[in-house]
Design a protein that fits this description.
The complex is a heterodimer of chains A (331) and B (294).
Chain A (H helix, E strand, L loop, with lengths): L9 H14 L7 H26 L7 H19 L3 H23 L4 H21 L1 H4 L5 E2 L5 E2 L2 E2 L3 H24 L1 H11 L1 H6 L4 H27 L1 E2 L6 H14 L4 H17 L7 H15 L3 H22 L7
Antiparallel strand pairs in A: 1-4, 2-3
Helix pairs in contact in A: 1-7, 2-7, 2-10, 2-11, 2-12, 3-4, 3-5, 3-10, 4-10, 7-8, 8-10, 11-12, 11-14, 12-14
Chain B lengths: L2 H33 L6 H17 L5 H24 L7 H23 L15 E3 L2 E3 L1 H23 L1 H11 L1 H6 L4 H27 L6 H15 L4 H21 L5 H15 L14
Antiparallel strand pairs in B: 1-2
Classes of the chains: A mainly alpha (331), B mainly alpha (294).
């Protein structure tokens, strides 16, 4: 007897997920929840990108909020100061962030462990300081106002529901690209690098090229999410793109389950909606957040999704042992 | 003030702040030396040091020396608690897990502190008055001398502890070869516990001596902790004198940059130096070059 598990074909999961996203608004009772879903979608895109870097390749980045912020600010400034349409903002943001990530990635990804964490963290803080200090462009600490609403080739996304579907389509495209990256030769190379860089280079994987490439890709995801965020909020301020947000992003990926795209989505949904659940605690929100972070890392180091999977599987085995009464090897 | 006097003033400020960075970096070093863990909650020890002193003075009406003592012991206990409650139970101690746990701990401690002390900034009076001492046209605050004096004795004490005492050597051995250390009868878990207490102690001391200069508040830990870590990396993680050199270099360059270029970019200068250092000489100014561990 085969043991049922999560859908192993990623595409089956993909279509299920797409269907779920399509019908989700039907079950909402108020508009505010749509708002939360839009943020979840935007965070999912960044988390998937970060998971490719952290979960699959094993390279930590504590500065990913900066790429998100750069995406948001580049399109925001072009829109508010030069009245360029959002689609032009997207093009400039992707090219700009791509180039920057490439040149940052080359020296940074030579570092390992704490050193890599610290370098990406330093980079993130420097970028946030620029958002604060370049008053004439960014509006300084009080933020940038006057960003146009989202419109693509004349089509206005003028309701939350329309924006929700725009975010869904963006998320699904990112997801599809990521599933393909992970399934391809590139994905295997990335996992090999995670396992052992020396061994992968011995078998002919160009370690540094792959590491930089995946860093750039994950930065592009964050910039893309920044673009969605900027034209949804029509306002951006430096405080949204600081160290704490980078930590939150890491948390999403880790709590979800490292090296699992679905885990990243699960983690992003959980962490983004957590303040809504923690409303009852009000002032205790950050405290509870820190506490959950520690508890999950101690007791479910493989993340909540895999933790639940392990739990369900072991339950299932226990139940089956009772019924069939035979001993079977776990896969 | 002439330009040269101004520069002298920036240098004095820089050395004072840099000494604090060095003290905080020392806290990182102690835990790193015994476990190779980077404790991202180190800045929170500094914050707790200041705030516990404030409370001991206001609630228990203790004079500063005793309030400081209570605070230092309190934070050392919190350090041990962090080790016992959050680090020991970890089943899969890889660097990423540990980085996230200590970040979680720092968020947790900050949250609890904001509940206890609120969000306002508290002053601690300067230890020996506020009459500035003239120095070649610039001035030195008496508190700056306290900062440097305390830092000097702490570094000296740590050097003696790690270099001369059995316990100190045992801590070093636990980090270098945990298995071998256990084989020769060293209780490695206890050694790690001691180093967490010790780094809490050093962090708290830094928080107490700096509080009269820059006030203390529930959220000062993040930035000051990161600067301390910068100091440790710039000087060379693991080396005690390296951290002192790193901290003072960082403080002086930051202070000169803030004074001569722009104060808004102060932190950007610090982290810019960190990045340059990481790219050009990751082992730090005084760190020994070691081969890549694979």
């Amino acid at each position: 007897m085969r043991i049922p598990s999560f859908p192993r074909s990623p595409y089956a999961g993909f279509f299920l997920f797409a269907a779920l996203l399509a019908v989700m608004p039907q079950f909402l009772t108020n508009d505010y929840h749509l708002n939360v879903l839009i943020f979840i979608g935007i965070h999912c895109i960044i988390a998937i990108g970060l998971d490719l870097l952290l979960g699959y390749t094993g390279q930590i980045s504590l500065g990913h909020a900066a790429f998100f912020g750069l995406g948001a600010y580049i399109t925001g400034v072009l829109s508010a100061k030069a009245s360029l349409p959002p689609i032009a903002g997207l093009a400039v943001a992707l090219v700009g962030v791509g180039i920057l990530a490439y040149f940052i990635g080359i020296p940074t990804l030579k570092l390992h462990g704490h050193y890599l964490a610290m370098a990406t963290l330093g980079f993130g803080i420097i970028i946030q300081i620029f958002f604060n200090e370049l008053d004439f462009l960014t509006g300084g600490p009080s933020g940038l106002v006057g960003i146009e609403d989202m419109s693509i080739f004349g089509y206005e996304f003028d309701s939350d529901l329309k924006y929700y579907y725009l975010v869904c389509v963006s998320l699904l495209l990112t997801l599809l690209l990521s599933i393909n990256v992970v399934k391809s030769r590139v994905g295997r190379a990335l996992r090999a690098i995670h396992g052992s860089e020396v061994a992968s280079s011995v078998i002919g994987v160009n370690v540094s090229r792959y590491k930089v490439a995946i860093f750039v890709l994950s930065a592009l995801y964050a910039a893309f999410a920044g673009w969605l965020y900027s034209h949804y909020m029509t306002f951006v301020s430096p405080s949204s793109f600081g160290f704490m947000f980078s930590v939150k992003l890491i948390t999403m990926v880790v709590i979800g389950s490292l090296g699992s795209i679905w885990g990243a989505i699960f983690g992003a949904a959980l962490i983004t909606s957590m303040p809504e659940f923690l409303h009852v605690f009000q002032n205790y929100e950050t405290t509870v957040f820190g506490f959950i972070l520690i508890i999950v890392m101690i007791f479910m180091p493989r993340g909540l999704l895999r933790g639940l999977e392990d739990l369900l599987l072991s339950l299932w085995h226990a139940v089956r042992k009772r019924i069939i009464g035979t001993r079977e090897e776990t896969p | 003030m002439t330009l040269s006097q101004q520069i002298l003033q920036y240098l004095i400020t820089g050395v004072t702040v840099g000494t604090i960075y060095a003290l905080i970096g020392m806290g990182f070093n102690i835990i790193y030396n015994s476990t190779e863990i980077i404790n991202f909650a180190q800045g929170e020890f500094v914050m707790l040091g200041g705030l516990l002193t404030v409370s001991s003075m206001q609630v228990l009406h203790l004079p500063i020396p005793f309030a400081a003592l209570v605070s230092v012991i309190g934070v050392a206990l919190i350090g041990t608690l962090l080790n016992v409650a959050a680090i020991r139970p970890v089943r899969d101690p890889n660097p990423i897990t540990l980085i996230i746990i200590t970040i979680g701990a720092s968020i947790f401690i900050r949250g609890v502190s904001s509940l206890i002390w609120g969000k306002e900034a508290y002053p601690i009076p300067a230890f020996s008055g506020e009459d500035p001492i003239p120095f070649f046209g610039a001035v030195i605050q008496p508190q700056s001398l306290w900062v440097m004096g305390v830092a000097f004795f702490i570094v000296l004490g740590l050097r003696q502890f790690f270099g001369r005492t059995i316990t100190g050597k045992a801590i070093m051995a636990s980090a270098f070869q945990p298995r071998a250390a256990r084989l020769v009868g060293i209780d490695t878990r206890f050694m790690v516990l001691i180093s967490f207490a010790l780094s809490g102690l050093v962090g708290a001391a830094a928080g107490i001596v700096i509080a009269p200069i820059s006030m203390t508040q529930y959220d000062i830990g993040v930035m000051i902790g990161l600067k301390g870590f910068c100091a440790a990396i710039i000087g060379g993680l693991g080396s005690f004198w390296g951290v002192v050199v790193g901290g003072i270099t960082l403080g002086v360059l930051e202070s000169l940059g803030a004074g001569l270029i722009s104060s808004g970019y102060k932190d950007a200068i610090a982290f810019g130096i960190l990045l340059l250092m990481l790219f050009l000489r990751p082992q730090g100014i005084l760190g020994k070059s070691k081969g890549d561990r694979v």
